[in-house]
Design brief:
It is a single chain. The strands form 4 sheets. Strands 3, 4, 5, 6, 7, 8 and 9 form a 7-stranded antiparallel sheet that branches. This protein is of the alpha+beta class. The longest helix is centred in the last third of the chain and has 39 residues. A hairpin with a 2-residue loop joins strand 3 and strand 4. The chain is elongated. It contains 21 helices and 14 strands.
């Protein structure tokens, strides 16, 4: 224990905690019938035997009783129904509850429902300052993927398998060229606009590979795309982690008009940066009617600063780590695009998709590449790639500034200076210098951002590799589960088979009878009281021994207990393989099928 912490707590005993502090509130709730002085005297008695000059080892021996130091309602929340603590090895040790000392006041926080001890509220701003307390895990938790990961993957899979309502979408085609199972992705069926063209978005399945793809439809496109073949091929070659890859571009009449279709990779459960971080009532371009009667509508000049502050207050500021995370991912994508001799042409919040949670390494992907190049019908663009790349960097700076200010009007040309000044109040000079460089009028290059990012790149790389290791660990669990699932499939194909090769007793004789008894040993055991005995670890361990052909022996009983067999897992594995191969050979036989 830190000696300075003892001095602080001793001062609290002499003067009492501030009335507005949470510690005083907890002490009042602990025992309303007894006076507060008795609590202080109890604590004083416990501290009287402590010497500040003692070593850290001797100080640890003088533990303070839990009931005198931790609030009673907190103690009850940390204890199991039998009275034992979830976070102590035995009942004699005090509960190590989560606490935080702020300006001489010690705050106590019970763990939340997921086992962590992070307090509710924004008392401490550092998101990485909390260390998780040990959580109580079930014995089988190491056999399955994490609940959050499993829930996320199941949700994405459900989105990928959703089918449209034929009554709501009667005009939806069954297939668009080689893509079937067409499903609309536009919210409430509302199409969007790119330049002057109406657009719609669909999800479909590619017939040749079964891969889910995203179809971007440009309504009423009457031009040819033959001359854009080299440009399309250049975009199709770009395969980057932060870019939604372009797969194909073609013209179709499946929608009863001439539509231009862009085929991209499909990333379910994604949303745009604007949807995630901004209110839906904010305008995209930052322009508003200066004579609007809406009191929340930003005004020019003196009202601009207040409007930005209102948006910051309503939306909440992003952490600087999140801004650097976004900056690194988007700069990486722009580096590849510019290095390929291309330009994005129109980087904005709506074109950047976010997959995953912000606090869980959110992945950014730039969407709708190559669309602007074709719709503008600008064949002179190849001579102006340098100019378009400079515009990309300017748009990149505006995007980061809008995120830092949490306001879309911050990127208006008249508001840039005010927005950068407001941003400087909450963020470091490094991120401010990065945005200033991107918004400057000098000649810029995407590679010059790397020195500004500095060592933060290694932080992001380390986080990405740790996330990759975690996913590999979770994958290894599912790989083992898949191996055991194949064993269960073989057992299920053999056990209780009503007839095989015109022999109705096939599954009850020979090796198959031994496998039937093994099935009962695996799943149908009961306790001495006759209750079902369910033990997942027993099932997993037994299947693992069967798969490896262990020489260990087990005793198998028939249900009437008249038959007892002592066999090894190696013998059971041979019986399983022979019986399943016998079924598989007959299933693959054409002569057997014709005879039936």
């Amino acid at each position: 224990m830190d000696p300075m912490a003892l001095v602080t707590q001793y001062n609290l005993l002499q003067n009492g905690p501030p009335e507005e502090s949470k510690l005083a509130t907890y002490m009042k709730r602990q025992n309303n019938a007894s006076p507060q002085s008795s609590l202080y005297s109890t604590l004083s008695k416990n501290y009287s035997n402590l010497d500040i000059n003692q070593s850290s080892v001797s100080m640890k021996k003088a533990s303070i009783p839990t009931v005198d130091f931790v609030p009673r309602n907190l103690v009850s929340s940390l204890n199991n129904p039998d009275g034992s603590s979830m976070y102590t090895k035995d009942k004699s040790q005090p509960i190590q509850a989560y606490q935080k000392n702020v300006n001489g006041t010690t705050y106590f926080y019970p763990p939340d429902t997921n086992g962590s001890n992070q307090p509710n509220g924004n008392i401490f701003d550092d998101p990485s300052g909390y260390l998780p307390m040990p959580s109580v895990e079930s014995p089988t938790s190491s056999l399955y993927a994490q609940d959050d990961l499993r829930r996320d993957l199941l949700h994405r899979n459900a989105l990928s398998m959703a089918s449209p309502d034929s009554d709501q979408w009667p005009d939806l085609p069954e297939a668009v060229e080689d893509y079937h199972d067409v499903y609309p992705l536009d919210i409430y069926g509302h199409s969007s606009k790119i330049l002057t063209y109406n657009t719609s978005t669909y999800r479909a399945t590619y017939s040749k590979t079964g891969e889910k793809c995203c179809l971007k439809r440009i309504h009423g496109f009457r031009l040819t795309i033959t001359k854009y073949a080299p440009l399309i091929e250049a975009w199709k070659k770009i395969n980057h982690a932060n870019i939604v890859q372009l797969k194909d571009v073609f013209i179709t009449k499946a929608f009863n008009d001439t539509s231009l279709m862009f085929i991209f990779n499909y990333h379910p459960d994604s949303e745009s940066l604007q949807t995630r971080h901004f209110n839906s009532n904010e305008t995209m371009n930052g322009y508003n009617d200066p004579f609007s009667s809406d009191p929340n509508a930003p005004r020019p000049y003196s009202h601009t600063k207040n409007a930005i502050l209102r948006h910051q207050h309503s939306n909440g500021l992003l952490s600087e780590n999140t801004l650097w995370n976004y900056a690194i991912q988007l700069s990486s994508a722009l580096r590849v695009i510019h290095g390929s001799g291309l330009a994005l042409r129109g980087l904005c919040l709506n074109r950047v998709l976010v997959t995953g949670h912000v606090n869980n390494r959110a992945r950014l992907r730039i969407n709708c590449v190559a669309i602007t190049d074709i719709l503008l019908n600008d064949m002179a663009s190849s001579n102006m790639i340098g100019h378009f790349q400079q515009e990309d960097l300017t748009d990149f700076g505006k995007l980061l500034l809008a995120l830092a200010c949490r306001s879309l009007i911050a990127v208006h040309q008249d508001n840039l200076a005010t927005s950068i000044d407001l941003m400087a109040r909450s963020y470091s000079s490094d991120i401010r210098n990065l945005i200033r460089y991107l918004l400057s009028t000098q000649r810029r290059h995407i590679t010059e951002l790397m020195p500004m990012i500095g060592a933060r790149f290694y932080t992001q790389l380390d986080a990405a590799q740790n996330h990759s290791d975690n996913l590999e660990n979770e994958l290894s669990k599912e790989m083992e589960n898949g191996r055991l699932f194949r064993l269960l499939v073989k057992l299920g194909s053999i056990n209780e088979r009503p007839e095989f090769n015109l022999d109705p007793a096939w599954s009850e004789t020979g090796d198959r009878y031994m496998l039937k008894l093994f099935r009962d040993y695996l799943f149908h055991q009961v306790t001495e009281e006759g209750r079902p005995w369910l033990d997942m670890s027993h099932i997993v361990q037994t299947l693992n021994k069967l798969d490896s052909g262990s020489p260990d022996t087990i005793c198998l009983y028939s249900r009437d207990e008249k038959t007892i067999l002592v066999v090894s897992y190696q013998e059971l594995k041979q019986c399983l393989e022979q019986s399943y191969c016998e079924i598989a050979s007959v299933a693959a036989s054409n002569d057997h099928i014709k005879a039936e």
